């Protein structure tokens, strides 16, 4: 009973923070010393402190394509929904990406500027800066018109002690984004353990981690991929083995990414 009570307390404490823009679950998938290093690395990353490779862990972002329509809200565990707006900005070099994010709920908004740089020491570097509303409006003048503004509804929830973000793309958008739903999580679990934690109430089509066809930068491009020079492969993930989803669902759409890029 004591163990169950502690688990319930842990879950309730975590659930109270669902929807926070910087939410990490430091689970028990590693030994205690590594768990502490993961916790410190997470805090340092949020504060923008470069720790080099001293706190390197194997936690990484995992992304899955979801088949719609979504189940009724009552099927989900407790969740928080947010409206999210992304705008890509012009940059001095094509090897760098810059974007603005506006994220809000019930009329209250936060604003983030992100610069994404090519791989350094084997890792993609992201520098995030919180903005005031005035700074956000001023920086919108640098918007890159070769990209659509991206509109999403982001649903945040805990399931099986794993934190998930469900991104539901909304119109106006390029036809390639209509009906697109992506599930994201960060995890140090191996494929077998993570697969057991994936939400059973969602229909997952395939893992798309590192697939440039599901990069938000590429999804937002106004031009067709086979007619643009802007299609980006530089930030795609590594070649680690992905989870194989056992179902008969077909992908959201056939995505041709080879021609003309």
Automatic annotation (TrEMBL):
Record protein name field: TRPL translocation defect protein 14
A GO biological-process term: photoreceptor cell maintenance
Organism: Cuerna arida
GO molecular function, one term: phosphatidylinositol binding
Entry-linked InterPro entries: CYTH-like_dom_sf, TRPL-trafficking_regulator
Record-linked SUPFAM superfamilies: CYTH-like phosphatases
